[in-house]
Design a protein that fits this description.
mainly alpha; disordered C terminus; single chain; 366 residues; 16 helices
């Protein structure tokens, strides 16, 4: 089922041949769906918080952890604020599974809220791209499945900014495709304070807007002139925050291999060595719940140039960046991919399969 695209919004369908799920507004159904989504996210949050923390959360909350981890300060401020709550301390004292640690209770709550937020905002994205809000609701459960495999499996380490980074990336995608630039620029500094990989939201922004302007017939030179101020402004925000954090925590202990006061830890040699190990290949293929081969092989069904080119550009650039400064066998560093891969997979499924017509007594073909 081929769908035309709007030149104003590359990916928004002009006409639809039916929806997967009929839109119903019954209050009971809406509450049941919301409860189910909340329970799925709570299941993830409990599993996630039961894994060991990579950081000393007490030191991190005080601002005394190793850099570059301490540079990701947004969860630190949340921990500081909630550690003064008597309710949080009382609840934590009854959580044996969390070792009565209020830091882990807050981390579990942060993971829960972030995942719920990521799923809800991605539902808006998929609904805008497909015009099918019923389908979008069920499609976003891919996020919970991917997160559970990628972040909450036994043996994974947890860090306070991983799940929030998924929310920020998902929100950045939605604000970009819906052309809500004021909201985008309010969100972007918070995303950078959470984790420096927010810079890849800017890459998505530029790719999407480039495709949108191209579909409007805007010439290349004019596109460059329109997008350059956005790219420069976001680069300036990112750099200003990173330099400020580097100065603020210049005297903190550093991760092994990181220069004192450095912004990053170089991991290229280690990552190249890991890539040569065959036992790591299936592990890396499990990123986004083993969805990447399916995404590549079925990419022609995305039928949305903005998402298609974003996948083709953002994901390789992100991987190259992680080869330089990340540990690629830690799948948590690819958490942001879930926010982009989920709408892409949803588009493939929605465009590839025509929903069955509604009606009574529909018999299967023999």
């Amino acid at each position: 089922m081929l769908r035309n695209q709007s030149p104003v919004n590359p990916g928004a369908p002009i006409s639809m041949n039916g929806s997967w799920f009929p839109a119903r507004t019954m209050a009971f159904r809406a509450l049941a769906k919301a409860f189910f989504l909340l329970m799925v996210c709570a299941h993830f949050a409990f599993r996630y918080a039961s894994n060991p923390s990579f950081l000393n959360l007490s030191l991190y909350t005080q601002g005394l952890e190793r850099t570059p981890y301490q540079y990701r300060v947004l969860p630190m401020y949340i921990l500081r604020a909630l550690m003064h709550s008597g309710l949080v301390l009382r609840l934590a004292s009854h959580q044996r599974l969390l070792n009565d640690d209020p830091h882990l209770l807050i981390l579990m709550g942060l993971a829960l809220v972030s995942l719920v937020g990521a799923m809800l905002v991605t539902r808006l994205t998929i609904s805008r791209l497909t015009g099918d809000s019923g389908f979008a609701l069920w499609a976003v459960f891919m996020i919970a499945l991917m997160c559970d495999l990628q972040l909450a499996s036994p043996g994974c380490f947890i860090l306070p900014y991983d799940v929030p980074s998924l929310f920020f990336f998902a929100a950045g995608i939605y604000l970009t495709i819906s052309h809500r630039f004021i909201g985008y620029y309010l969100l972007f500094p918070l995303a950078v304070l959470n984790r420096e990989t927010a810079c890849f939201i800017s890459v998505f922004f530029v790719v999407w807007e480039w495709v949108r302007l191209s579909m409007q017939g805007v010439e290349i030179k004019a596109r460059i002139l329109r997008l350059s101020p956005h790219a420069l402004a976001q680069a300036a925000i990112w750099l200003a925050i990173k330099v400020s954090l580097a100065k603020a925590y210049a005297h903190n202990p550093v991760e092994v291999g990181s220069p004192s006061g450095g912004l990053f830890v170089t991991k290229l040699h280690y990552n190249l060595h890991e890539l040569l190990k065959p036992e790591q290949w299936p592990f890396l293929l499990s990123i986004c719940g083993f969805a990447l081969p399916f995404l590549y092989l079925q990419r022609r069904w995305i039928r949305c140039d903005g998402i298609l080119y974003a996948c083709a550009i953002v994901l390789p650039i992100y991987f190259a960046g992680m080869m330089l400064v990340g540990v690629i066998v830690e799948l948590r560093i690819f958490t942001e991919w879930i926010a982009l891969v989920t709408p892409a997979i949803a588009l493939i499924v929605h465009n590839r399969f025509i929903p069955a017509p509604e009606g009574p007594d529909l018999l299967p073909h023999r």
